[in-house]
Write a structure and sequence with these properties.
The chain is an alpha+beta fold. It folds into two domains: about 1-25 and about 285-339; about 30-280, Cyclophilin (Beta Barrel). The protein has eight helices and twelve strands. The strands form three sheets. An eight-stranded antiparallel sheet has the order 6-7-9-8-10-3-2-11. The longest helix has about 40 residues, at about 285-325. The chain starts with a helix and ends with a helix. It catalyses: [protein]-peptidylproline (omega=180) = [protein]-peptidylproline (omega=0). It comes from Henningerozyma blattae (strain ATCC 34711 / CBS 6284 / DSM 70876 / NBRC 10599 / NRRL Y-10934 / UCD 77-7) (Yeast). One of its GO terms (molecular function) is peptidyl-prolyl cis-trans isomerase activity.
Length: about 350
């Protein structure tokens, strides 16, 4: 037990303390993610009506080809999800973000595959409008945890701000599946109110995402010429206490805001903790050098982590042999004494 606990704590230390990102991100100087223009600039100080309680955060990393740097890069956004307002929609998204195993095909026994958002392509980009993804069985069938097609549960949340995360239908109501899109217009898109379900909001990395969508080269079908996909997706549920009380408070604030109490509103800047997104500050040469140093440190940390894992295995073996040495070597010792 001592050996097991010791090794466990070493491995936990490696994961929590020594883990560090080792991939180039989208904040590099001169990248298309940093190319903000008046046409793409988001007003992070504009006042919007209050948001519902956030039940989960989703950390979604997109792999894209940077047309300016001529290389593939990663960009991570944080999405606030509103499971208390759209529980059915959230449940479907949450399961597909984590991945579920389903039977596919007509063979007996059927082939079982893991269906998930991770790895999905960005299928369509409408510059200044939206970015579509989430077709988990692309080219095979429409799929969701609620069936191949299901009804919109409500239209409580409006398309009143950039960065809305929305379920995509097939052109008519009642045809939802797994596909979703992110609104990349810097302005509201009220023409979609009462037509598609908003269930989340990009709260971090929004400006860069809009820049990327605007500067991505597309083919005649609005699909990225260079493959673009969801590289990683991680769900982080939040502990909210009494969600019903928070829901009542939210509905009260929304009602009062719509009656004219605008001081109850919120800004995207209040939700976004990414300074680069709010201030649109390009990296200086010093910052670029610092990032290069951080990448070197990350590589060293990764090597140290590997070394600690090896050491932990050796410790485990030594402690185990020490604990069970009588059982392992006992008969052999007695046999030597006998002769």
């Amino acid at each position: 037990m001592l050996a097991y606990n010791l090794v466990s704590w070493i491995l936990i230390f490696c994961d929590l303390v020594l883990s560090a990102p080792t991939t180039l991100d989208s904040t590099a100087k001169g990248s298309s993610a940093q190319l903000t223009t008046d046409e793409t600039r988001v007003d992070f100080n504009k006042i919007y009506e209050p948001s519902p309680p956030v039940t989960s955060h989703c950390f979604l990393t997109i792999r894209y080809f940077d047309e300016l740097l001529q290389e593939y890069r990663l960009h991570t956004i944080t999405i606030a999800l509103y499971g208390s307002i759209t529980p059915k929609t959230f449940g479907n998204f949450d399961k597909l973000a984590k991945g579920i195993v389903v039977p596919v095909g007509d063979s007996i026994p059927p082939k079982r595959v893991k269906v998930k958002y991770e790895g999905n392509s960005i299928n369509k980009i409408i510059p200044g409008k939206s970015m579509l993804t989430g077709d988990v069985l692309y080219g095979i069938a429409k799929f969701s945890t609620l069936g191949p097609a299901w009804e919109e549960e409500n239209f409580v949340l409006r398309h009143d701000r950039p960065g809305r995360v929305v379920m995509a239908n097939e052109g008519t109501l009642g045809t939802l599946n797994s596909k979703f899109y992110i609104e990349t217009s810097p302005e509201a898109q009220p023409e979609f109110d009462e037509k598609t379900v908003v269930f989340g909001q990009v709260i971090n990395g929004l400006q860069e995402l809009i820049n990327i969508s605007k500067n991505t080269k597309l083919d005649s079908e609005s699909k990225p010429v260079n493959p673009m996909n969801i590289e990683h997706i991680i769900m982080a549920p939040l502990i909210l206490g009494n969600i019903k009380d928070k829901q009542v408070t939210y509905l009260d604030r929304v009602g009062r805001y719509r009656k004219g109490e605008l001081e109850l509103g919120e800004r995207l800047a209040d939700l976004d903790t990414n300074v680069l997104s709010k201030e649109f500050i390009p990296l200086t040469d010093e910052q670029s050098a610092l990032r290069a140093k951080q990448r070197g440190q990350a590589q060293s940390t990764s090597q140290l982590k590997e070394l600690l894992v090896v050491i932990s295995v050796i410790i485990f073996i030594v402690l185990t042999l020490n604990k069970y040495k009588r059982e392992i070597f006992g008969k052999k010792v007695v046999s030597m004494r006998k002769y």
